[in-house]
Amino acid sequence: MPRRILATCPVLAITLAAALALSGCVNVSIFGKPGEPYKEQKLDGTGSGKVLLLSVDGLISERERQGLVRTRPSTVQELVAQLKLARKDKDIKAVVLKIDSPGGTTTASDILYHEFLAYKDETKVKLVAAMMGVAASGGYYVALPADHILAHPTTITGSVGVIFLMPRLAGLMEKIGVGVDVSKSGTLKDMGSPFRAATAEEKKLVDAMTRAQATRFLELVQKHRHLEPAALGIVSSARVFDAAEAKDLGLIDSVGYLDDALDKAKGLAGLPKDATVMTYRRHASADGTYYLPGAEAEGGRPAVINLDLGGLLPPQAGMYYLWTPAYTQ
Hints:
This protein has helices spanning 2-8, 10-23, 75-87, 106-123, 138-141, 170-176, 200-225, 229-235, 243-249, 258-269; strands spanning 39-44, 47-57, 65-66, 71-72, 92-101, 103-105, 126-136, 148-151, 156-158, 163-165, 240-242, 254-255, 275-281, 318-322. By secondary structure, it is of the alpha/beta class. The protein has a single domain (36-162, 199-295, 313-326), classed as 2-enoyl-CoA Hydratase, Chain A, domain 1. Strands 1, 2, 5, 7, 8, 9, 11, 12 and 13 form a 9-stranded mixed beta sheet that branches. The chain has a 3-stranded antiparallel beta sheet with strand order 6-14-10. A two-stranded antiparallel ribbon has the order 3-4. Strand 7, helix 5 and strand 8 form a beta-alpha-beta unit. It is globular, with a radius of gyration of 22 Å.
């Protein structure tokens, strides 16, 4: 129905797209073809062997990203699909994960961690993580399988911990005179309900689940990074660190730029300096660089109106490896 409306009312579609674009808070494109297969795009180099550049951008989730007219695949779907393609290409000798994410759900972060680790173990490909503006919480979690972790000089990372988010509407509902009647089979069946305050028992149960997830995170950090006891104690506070602090603690291996991460990947894989750097995109871009966002980038071509409102809305209730101050950025 929405596509027929836009097709018969082109002026409305263009006016809406222009208004949303001018607002500066949404990502707008029109008249595109969703669902096209990923294609290899060369970014640099002419030498033998390939380095695959993958992007982990924004909130890490297993849920589709909703738009006004169409949806985009989830972060998990995008990256697992690209790894499936990479398994078929024996010329790929190294992968660089370009991470710019405050984290996401615990499950989605753990899925990507597992997929990256499995891909590396199966193919023996060298894996390098390159952290950009923010690679915190789940954004750090997914970097753990890397053979080398590099942070940009201005990266914010860390936040090794868990947060359980439960929206509360009870106070607002009381003010406007609205209520919810609940019939439940057990006393804890509606635990976490936004329509009432949590009981002391429920708070204890949620705290226990949060501690269990945090323990798993810290155990994986220790497995891959082998931190000194004092450093592990500092990291377990779940605070964030700048790049220099993260290196001193042992959370990362070096500080540099994306070019340095690519050079490191080539070196670890025994590739020449001019090895081919490539990525996967649905639409090739004539101006494609290392810094163009992930595989869904349209490369300047218009596509159906797509509103990414994720940063404007609170996350759904649940357990997150997420640095929440960065979520709305």
